[in-house]
Structures are given as C-alpha cells and as structure tokens.
C-alpha cells in the first residue's frame, strides 16, 4: 500500500509540473528580471543611467527578497498544507471552483487517505490476528484431544499386545499338551486295537428290544397251548403214564400232576392248557439260560466259570467273555433245530399223557399248525437267547420263571387267579409265563423288567380238592 501511495504522489507531482510549466516559466522570467534589477540596484548601476528602480510590491528602504525566498512555497500554500484541503472531494478533485487541486493538496489528501487506510489495515490485521488466535486455540484443543486419544490407543495397543502374547503362549502350551495327548492317544489306540477282539462291538439292541422278544415268545406259547388243548380227545390208555408223571412232576410240580388227573373233563381241559403253557415256558426258560446245547455237564461248568469271572473281574469283563464264548457256541444252534423241535414236542407230549389225552386224528391242518407253533417257539427262544447275550452285551439280562413251591412275591410276580385273594404266605404252584430281570453287582441285585406270571398253589389245590 505504501508503494502504491508513493507512485500516486509521484504521478500527481508529475502532472502538477506539466500543468504548471508555462506559469512557472513566466514566473521564473519575472523573478529573473526582478532579481537582475535588484542586483543592478545594489551595485548602483542602471542600464540608462537612471536611478535604481524598486521592484513592484517592494517599498523603498526594505530589504530585497532573496532567491530562496523567491523559490519557497507561498504562505497560502503552507496554510493549505497545514490545514488540509477542504475543497477536494473524495477523489481529490475540486469541489466547486472547477480548478484542479495542487500537488500539496493532493499530498494532504493522500496522507489523510493513507492514515484512514492504515487504520482500516490495522483493524483488519487485528481481526485476522484474532481469527488466527481463535483458530490456533481450536487447533491446539483438537491437538490435545488427539494426543489424549493417541495415548489411550497406545495404551490399548499395549494391552492388546500383552493379551495376544498371553494367548499365544497359552496356545503354544495347549499345542504342546495336545501333541503329548496325541502321542498318548495313539499309544492307547494301538493298545485298543490289540484287544478289540475281546472288547467287541457295543450294544446292538436295547433292553426294550429284548422285552418285546420275550413278550412275543410268551404269546406264541399261550397260542400253542390253547390250540393243543382245544384239539385233543380223552383216552383210557395207561401206557407210559407213570414215566410221564415223573417227568411232569419234576418240571411243573406235583400239584400240577394231581390237577391233571381230575375226573371232570372241562376242569381237566382247563388244567391241560395251563400245564401245556407251563411246560413250554419251562422248556424255553431252560433253553434261554443255556450256553450250549452240546453237553449239559459242559454247560454247567461254563456257567460256573462265568460266575467266577464276574466275581473277580466284574460284570463288564464277564459279559465280554460271555459274548465271545457264546458267539462261537451259538453257531451250532441251527444244526440242532430238529432236535430242539423234538425235545419241545416230547415235553408237551408228556403233559398230554398225564392228562390222559391225545391229539385228534384226521385233521391235518391242526397237526400242521401245532408243528409250526412248536418250530416258532424254538426259533423265538433261540433268538431271545442271542439278543439277551450278544445284542445287549453291556448288561446282564436273564429270563425268570418261578419254580413250584417258591414264596409268592407280588412285587416281582403276577398271579393268574380270578376272583381269589392272595395272601403274603402264598406259594407258587407253577410258572406259566416267563419274566425278565436285569442283574447288577454280580447278581446280588436285580431289577424286574417283566414280571413272570404264575398260578398259586392254593388255586391248583382247589381244583383236585373240589373233586
């Protein structure tokens, strides 16, 4: 701005000089002549021998004006410079007289304009400084917040780094433990593979499957006994009666034999069905408990050995040994189906002989149905033995059929007595339907899954006593 002001002043001075050049030349000429006249008068010499003249406006006896005074600004000019030019407008032009402002007037105007511009400049500089100060304070506050946040992030980063390092150390430790466990597992897997033959597969059946198989067998026995008792005729033959009575008495008890010998045919037929059902149930129960049908003495020895293993090594080891042993022994069952059928048929035949009955002749369908019923009972009995021993290898499931003379326990048995009340001192006359129990603690405890059905001794006695 100062440079622009300087250039403006120089321009005004130059214009002033150009406009005042003719007048200045005239003034200089007059002043020169006047100066020369003064010089001549001082020297006492005139051009025509006349006395010295006095310049216009100068009285005689006064001192002559000097050259410096001649070229100095007039008093009016100085007054304008001191008081300022009040006749100029805002652009530095004359207000009303139509004349152009002089250089001094313009200088004064420019000085005043410079002072005003300087004040405006200072004001704006102050505003800019204040704004800059505010911006600086705001940015400083933002910087402090950013530094604070950065410090928090650094602390969080350090914490996360520590946490990551801890987790890394933990993962390394876990990997080490896993590697050790893997080595141990591989060793145990190798050992397990070596004894896999003994351990064998897990259970392939549930207890409920074995229960269903038992209920199916009981139903088949009941249907066969009903079919045979409905298709017999009485006879008076005494052949083999004594031998049959001994066999039936051994299996079913003396009370059953006495009840089969009553005179009333209807009562005898009812007792015949119960006796046939009890005989078939007893045969299936004995077969389900056998380990082998090859030799009765061998079977007894194997069962004794099983009890020893169960007592010394526990039920788990004993059951695995039983599964392995019976798996080989049961392979011969299919070869002995015919002998099993004959054995069951002979058992039922003894009951018919004791009751002095024989199957009706001339009805081939009934004979075929009886034969198929016997085969079905044999097949289901063998399947039940397989399921209880091999299908559920982790649990010892055993069929039960109370023998004659055993005390009656209503919590473990069902009495087939219609319209009669049983007492706590009742005893079993014979068992007619098998039950199923689960043995634990080497057979010391048992849990009943299916209650066996029995006929009380008092019920059998009431049959032949009434006769």
From TrEMBL:
**Highest taxon listed in the record's lineage:** Eukaryota
Q: Where is this region: Disordered?
A: 13-102
Where composition is biased (Basic and acidic residues), the residues are: 14-39, 86-98
Which named protein is this? Answer: Uncharacterized protein
Species this protein is from:
Schizophyllum amplum
């Amino acid at each position: 701005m100062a440079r622009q002001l300087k250039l403006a002043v120089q321009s005004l001075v130059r214009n002033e000089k150009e406009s005042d050049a003719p007048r200045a030349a005239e003034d200089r000429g007059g002043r020169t002549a006047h100066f020369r006249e003064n010089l001549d008068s001082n020297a006492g010499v005139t051009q025509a021998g006349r006395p010295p003249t006095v310049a216009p406006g100068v009285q005689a006896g006064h001192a002559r004006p000097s050259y410096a005074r001649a070229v100095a600004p007039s008093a009016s000019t100085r007054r304008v410079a001191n008081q300022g030019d009040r006749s100029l407008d805002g652009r530095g032009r004359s207000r009303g007289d139509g004349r152009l402002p002089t250089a001094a007037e313009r200088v004064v105007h420019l000085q005043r304009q410079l002072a005003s511009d300087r004040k405006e400049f200072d004001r704006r500089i102050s505003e800019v400084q204040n704004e800059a100060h505010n911006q600086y304070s705001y940015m400083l506050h933002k910087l402090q917040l950013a530094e604070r946040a950065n410090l928090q992030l650094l602390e969080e980063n350090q914490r996360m780094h520590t946490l990551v390092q801890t987790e890394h150390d933990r993962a390394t430790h876990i990997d080490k433990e896993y590697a050790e466990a893997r080595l141990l597992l591989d060793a145990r897997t190798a050992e397990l593979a070596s004894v896999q033959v003994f351990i064998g597969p897990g259970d392939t059946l549930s207890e409920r499957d074995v229960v269903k198989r038992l209920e199916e067998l009981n139903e088949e026995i009941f249907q066969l006994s009903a079919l045979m008792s409905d298709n017999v005729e009485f006879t008076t033959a005494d052949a083999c009666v004594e031998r049959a009575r001994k066999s039936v008495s051994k299996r079913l008890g003396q009370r059953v034999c006495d009840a089969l010998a009553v005179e009333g045919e209807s009562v005898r037929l009812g007792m015949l069905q119960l006796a046939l059902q009890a005989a078939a149930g007893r045969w299936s129960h004995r077969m389900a408990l056998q380990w082998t049908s090859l030799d009765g003495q061998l079977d007894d020895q194997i069962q004794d050995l099983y009890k020893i293993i169960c007592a010394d090594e526990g039920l788990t080891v004993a059951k695995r040994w039983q599964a392995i042993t019976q798996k080989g022994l049961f392979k011969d069952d299919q070869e002995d189906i015919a002998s099993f059928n004959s054995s069951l048929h002979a058992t039922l035949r003894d009951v018919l002989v004791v009751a002095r009955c024989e199957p009706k002749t001339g009805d081939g369908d009934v004979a075929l149905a009886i034969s198929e019923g016997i085969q079905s009972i044999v097949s289901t009995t063998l399947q039940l033995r397989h399921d209880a021993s091999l299908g559920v290898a982790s649990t010892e499931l055993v069929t039960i059929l109370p023998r004659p003379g055993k005390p009656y326990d209503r919590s473990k048995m069902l009495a087939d007595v219609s319209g009669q009340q049983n007492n706590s001192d009742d005893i079993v006359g014979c068992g007619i339907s098998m039950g199923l129990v689960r043995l634990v603690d080497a057979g010391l405890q048992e849990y009943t899954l299916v209650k066996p059905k029995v006929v009380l001794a008092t019920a059998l006695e009431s049959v032949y006593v009434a006769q």
